Amino acid sequence: MNRRDALKLSVLGAAAVVTNGVAKENEAQKTSVAPLAHPLNGKARVAIIGGGYAGLSVAKAIREHNKEAEIVIFESKNVFASCPYSNLWIGGVEGTSYEELLFSPLEPAITYGYEVVNEKVIAIDRKAKTLTTLGNTYAYTLLVLATGIEYDYAPFGLDAEEARACRTLFPASYTGGEEQLTLKKKVENFTEGVFVITVPKGAYRCPPAPYERAALIASYFQAKGRKAKVVLLDPRDKPTTKSKGFLEAFAKYEGYLEYLPTSNITNIDLAKKVVAYDVFDVNTKQFVKQTLAFDDANIIPANKASALLTGAGLAVTSTGWGRVVAPGFQSVSDPDVYIVGDVLGEYPFPKSAQMANSCGLIAGEQIGRRLSGRDPRVGAELPANVCYSMVSPTTAIAVTHQAYLEEKSVKVKAELFENADEATAVATKDWYKGITASIFS
């Protein structure tokens, strides 16, 4: 047995015991207890799968435009742990705390009159208009998919077992909760060596997040005087967004941050802690194989949409994200299914919290008006986005996006604010307080 196999066994062995126990328990439930049916109770029911920025925004907007419909959010987590703003806490920005990331979905549920069900949806039957969790089946009138992202480690050369081990050992922290807590501890306890951060291939949640995280962790190492360096591996030739601002910020962390563009990761040896990647040589116009040994890492894998989309027979783009009828949010496969947030792939929208919130509010209004027998006003309003990125504990940069229609096609206009300053950092914090208050207050 080699070290790689030993690692997989050590990491996955305990999990296998738990998983087998859960599997047996679930099997027992399947054989002894039929799913409990929840038919419609005489009024329209909107089922929302996903209780993130998009799903919660949809629920609020529906209620503001329709007082009668039953609204049910299905979310397996019982606490909302925000990814936006988490980099500030992970990077040790003074004045930030983990409590600022945590919210109870029950508070807006009480305020706006909807239900939150802490169960994972495992199947959708569009013909019967039902969704199924492990123990229940719910009928719906309209369905909203706000399922966010899932991880895909395959582009990094990892199989299913290695992917589970990688998530445990080097969590991406692209979802709230345990991954955030683990990454925070890793950064606090890292005293010397190479700390790798990877930028995902393809479309992924919050394009500037890996760059912001790299800058803030490097700043933290610098402030603590540690013999530690962040190495940021990026398959692109420059940062995905706000490249000028980020590159200028990186230059200020010389010795603490090394940015490696055009670095296409081909494999990660989890046991030896070695990343294999190809770097494009501009002189020879060829890729050159490289390896990098690291001491700890934040492995952010490629993102993909929930398998619920294809499992329900809903059309997806060539890259696997949900398709909708422009300029709205109804699936091209089913007018009774809406797709919002990061899972959406029809438009050139960044997968960000503000865009999810903006799309959610618009889609929610369309649904609420539709259920009330009014014109849903599809296309009357198009979403907008603002994205702030801290590049030091006291300065930030930003970008805005505004969707618009051109010959029946939805396009996006961007405006960059890449000169880092303190005023933008203040705006970053004000934005976060504002968007969370609008959802949870």
Automatic annotation (TrEMBL):
Residues 45-150 form the FAD/NAD(P)-binding domain. Residues 182-281 form the Sulfide dehydrogenase [flavocytochrome c] flavoprotein chain central domain. Gene3D superfamilies: FAD/NAD(P)-binding domain, Flavocytochrome c sulphide dehydrogenase, flavin-binding domain. InterPro entries: FAD/NAD-bd_sf (IPR036188), FAD/NAD-binding_dom (IPR023753), FCSD_central (IPR049386), FlavoCytC_S_DH_flav-bd (IPR015323), FlavoCytC_S_DH_flav-bd_sf (IPR037092), SQRD (IPR052541). Residues 384-440 form the Flavocytochrome c sulphide dehydrogenase flavin-binding domain. This is FAD-dependent oxidoreductase. It comes from Sulfurospirillum tamanense. The lineage of its organism: Bacteria, Pseudomonadati, Campylobacterota, Epsilonproteobacteria, Campylobacterales.
